[in-house]
Amino acid sequence: MSHVIHDATRLNHRVKRLKGQVAALEKALAGAPECLAVLTQIAAIRGAAQSLLLEVLEGHMQEHVAEEKNAAKRSAEVSAVNKVLRSYLK
């Protein structure tokens, strides 16, 4: 997972943004928020999580799929990515 280690600073920045958005949602729900404000915050959280997923996925696809010389390992990686994507898209 050298791509994750290499991109750790950028990925951690995205995680911190997600934490902040979740904390803001939690704070809003403790009060009397407007429904649209809550929906907007949830959409922002989902977008941030999706951006994080895509960034890690791009690195994984490049390093562990596209550059994998062994066909069996490459096929296993594709299957693993498909499983993650199916889980995410449910």
What descriptors fit this protein?
90 residues, mainly alpha, Methane Monooxygenase Hydroxylase, Chain G, domain 1, 4 helices, elongated
Report what the structure shows.
The protein is mostly helical and 90 residues long. It has helices spanning 2-6, 8-30, 35-66, 71-89. The radius of gyration is 17 Å and the shape is elongated. The relative contact order is 0.12. The mean pLDDT is 91.
CATH class: Mainly Alpha
Shape: elongated
CATH superfamily: Metal-sensitive repressor, helix protomer
Quote the CATH topology. Methane Monooxygenase Hydroxylase, Chain G, domain 1
Secondary-structure element pattern, one letter each: HHHH
Distance between the termini: 26 Å
Total beta strand runs = 0
- Indicate the structural class: mainly alpha
Number of helices: 4
Based on the structure given, which CATH architecture is correct? Up-down Bundle
Explain briefly what this protein structure is.
The chain is an all-alpha fold and 90 residues long. The chain has 4 helices and no strands.
